[in-house]
Amino acid sequence: MTIAGATRTARGRLLVLAQLSNSVGDGAYYTTSALYFTQVVGLAPARVGLGLTLGWAFGSLAGVPLGRLADRRGARGTAVLLALATGLAVAAFTVVRGFVPFVLVACGYAAAQSGLAAARQALLAGLVPAGERTGLLARLQSTLNAGLAVGAGLGGLALHAGTREAYTGVFVVDAVSFLVCALLLAGLPRVARAVRVPARARASVLRDRPYTVVALLNTVLLLRLPLLSLVLPLWIVERTGAPAWLVSALFVLNTAVVTVFQVRTARGVTGLDSALRAVRRAGWVMCAACVVFALSAGASAWVAAGVLVAGAVLQVVAEMGQSAGAWQLSFDLAPADRVGEYQGLFGTGVTLARTLGPLVLTWLLVEGGPPGWLLLGAVTVTASHALSPATRRAATTPQQQPATP
After folding, report:
1. 138 by DSSP, 3-state: which?
2. Burial level of 156, CB count in 10 A (0-12/13-18/19+)?
3. pTM for the structure as a whole
4. Domains of the chain, with CATH numbers?
């Protein structure tokens, strides 16, 4: 291995360790936060939902300006500061005791998380050659899933204890995990920032309509995000005869498959053409998953369980392919000197999907039944194929020519 290759390996290792650190904390947080806010803080469930929705809505607006900040002031320093800000917001949750403070902290938490995601992508783009980014992102995704699984185990211990101290301890662990993440990111080299910004680059990324269309179509594909955490649990309980514990089994299945196979799935994605093929293929696989999930309606316990497992396997295969393709598109279509800002917009799709997805999918699938699943599958295929002309247009727009640093 050359010196340059060893250096890139060391940088990738630090990025992976930083991802592992905060994903363990997040896994514990996601597992316990709802019960903490209702049972310890004393908020009504409806208020918790409203507060988190407002927080993530604010976070979706913060992604682009914070990504621009990473481009202008340096990706590493911005990522470190936003990791610290996220940890501070998590720690602040332990002292809030009312709805208004809860909403304010939720807004700060979501904004810091959204900005951190954009800054880390800009940092990765500055440290890793273009041909190696998707592979490293696949490693990061595998690490994320492994860390979430470990964190969920820690959260399960707190849920078993059921005490205020146990819940508070989880939030402290999450806050410390972001402190460790910040320290690891600080150990990476600085990324050169743009010194001279041409007039065209001062315009917002939102004025780059072709890239915005690509980001919106990707957001449609990301509506699958609430499936495992919200929609399938409700579907299993209300629409099938499958046992409730299957919810946990499907979550473990998804996490394990992504941890083991995401890197392999991403190896074939090396450019725009291969990325679009991966996304189109994932669209059809996701459509097949929707058909299989629809077939579980009204089935007896073990038949429904088998059908749901088959659907979950198809869904995770689609998830890995769509993720790999989307990563490649998000980087290849962004100007080299504005990666943070463009990643801020692209990452907003995750926030929007997590904000709107629960409402849309609960109504469409749980209330709509099998026809809703078929409609979701059709929409997914349509969006995956619409990405091809949208990407071709985005790739030829003059705004994609990199500005001179």
Report:
1. helix
2. middle
3. 0.78
4. 3-193 (1.20.1250.20), 205-400 (1.20.1250.20)
